[in-house]
Amino acid sequence: MSGEIKRSKICVPIVAVDEIEIIRQLEKIKDKKKTAMIDMAEFRADYYKDLNDFKKLDKLLMDIRNELNKEGIKLLFTIRSKAEGGEALDFEKPTVNEINLHIAENKLADMIDIEYYSEKNSADRVMSEAKKNNIKIILSSHDFEKTPSLDEMLERYKGMQERKADIIKLAVMPHSEQDVSNLLEAVLTTYEKYSDVKVVGISMGELGRRTRIEGYKYGSYMTFAIIDKASAPGQVSVDELN
Q: Which of the four, 16, 37, 80, 226, has the lowest number of CB atoms within 10 Å?
């Protein structure tokens, strides 16, 4: 195993439907930062009830990003699809990648998560605009039902790397210890093979808990932890990672 990564970057979620609860969670993150390492906060925009109101969204994100950046925390903007474990949106327009493009064009986040299997042309437009504005892109893929074969996970990482993302992320659901081992092997192999991209691998649920805690030993760049409300099964507390 490579010894180059001392620890995974720690990302905590902001999961709320309205501004009042979002600000409450933001204040808890700022307070926790005084005693714990927190590198990123993921705003799960699929939960936010006014996501399609750009006037409200822009002001909220500017305020959140400003407050987080003061604490040395990067803002990750994510709209997770229902197919990959997110909340169903109650509107069709703007589309997810139209919103992502708006975020990139207006520099409203430090990082944007784009799902690997989202529509490629619109995703590529977001990625191009993000790179122009020095916004990092995470290409992600989530399977809440199973863990694909080792070969399939390696192929998925390869496909993400070829898209020139900054970070490539795979989160899968294990049904055995072998599934967990396969995920970690896929992470390590990808980490050692590609020097131009950061790799993230998560095995979800209680069975995959160790991947969130020890993933850095295999080259996993970041992990997700909770202060308040979880955004995925098996997330551990920030205190456990510090």
A: 37
102 is catalytic: no
The C-alpha atoms of residue 157 and residue 142 are separated, in whole angstroms, by: 12
Number of structural domains found in the chain? 1
Determine which one of 136, 169, 198, 217 is catalytic. Answer: 169
Nearest to 130 by CA among 119, 116, 114, 141: 114
Q: What is the pLDDT of residues 84-140, one digit of tens each?
A: 999 999 999 999 999 999 999 999 999 999 999 999 999 999 999 999 999 999 999
Question: Using an 8 Å Cβ cutoff, are 172 and 143 in contact?
Answer: yes
Reference 211, options 163, 156, 147, 159; nearest CA is 147
Tell me if 101 is assigned to some domain: yes
Instruction: Give the H/E segment covering residue 159.
Output: helix 150-162
Output b/e per residue, 150-159; b: 16+ Cβ within 10 A. beebbebbee
**Which CATH number characterizes residue 232's domain?**
3.20.20.70
- Per the structure, the complete domain to which residue 109 belongs is given by 9-241
Tokens of 161: 């790397």
30 is catalytic: no
Question: Of 9, 32, 74, 142, which is the active-site residue?
Answer: 142
3-state helix, strand, coil in the chain (%, to 5): 45, 20, 35
CB of 85 closer than 8 Å to CB of 144: yes
Residue at 70 is within a domain: yes
